[in-house]
Amino acid sequence: MKFMSVALAAVFTLGATVTAVTPSQAAPGQSKVTPATAGNCGGASWYALTSRTASGERMNASYLTAAHRNLRFGTKVAVTNKRNGKTVVVRINDRGPFIRGRVLDLSKAAASHIGMVSSGTASICYRVVS
């Protein structure tokens, strides 16, 4: 029961909605509770290079930016650290991460906002804002 309340708290922290359906209402293969963030959780790390990003701009560790494998450049994403609930909005300007299990690489500034600089990695969830 504690796991369910923690999971729901994380979903509501992200501003997502949860829809409960009865088994007869559910489509085949659909779960009973479907958070809007399903599939948008995983690991994140941070980086502070000074090279060019895949979008062509120079990487600046003090900007709130991130790398994602396939979201369009310029997409704004709200990223929440699952451990402490802190959230930051970043702009996608690079490609990556290239390590299995990770879904985002954050700039050092973004990592600092959600409290993951010292650990280097964190378990996060994200949602597209615009």
Describe the structure.
It is a single chain. This protein has helices spanning 2-13, 108-113; strands at residues 41-47, 65-67, 76-81, 87-94, 102-107, 121-128. It has a 6-stranded mixed β-barrel with strand order 1-5-2-4-3-6. It is of the alpha/beta class and 130 residues long. Mean pLDDT is 79; it is low at 1-37.
Task: Please specify the SSE layout and strand pairing.
Layout: H1 2-13, E1 41-47, E2 65-67, E3 76-81, E4 87-94, E5 102-107, H2 108-113, E6 121-128
Parallel strand pairs: 1-5, 2-4
Antiparallel strand pairs: 1-6, 2-5, 3-4, 3-6
Quickly give the structural class.
alpha/beta
Q: State mean pLDDT (0 to 100 scale).
A: 79
Q: Span between N and C termini?
A: 34 Å
* Largest sheet, strands/sense/barrel: 6 strands, mixed, barrel
Order of helices and strands: HEEEEEHE
Per DSSP E runs of 2 or more residues, the count of β-strands stands at 6
Low-confidence segments, given as residue ranges, are 1-37
Nearest-angstrom radius of gyration?
16 Å
Task: State the helical fraction.
Answer: 10-25%
Shape annotation: globular
Strand content: 25-35%
Number of helices, counting only DSSP H or I runs of 4 residues or more: 2
Read across the widest sheet, the strand sequence of neighbours is: 1-5-2-4-3-6
Write a brief structural summary.
The protein has 130 residues and is of the alpha/beta class. It has helices spanning 2-13, 108-113; strands at 41-47, 65-67, 76-81, 87-94, 102-107, 121-128.
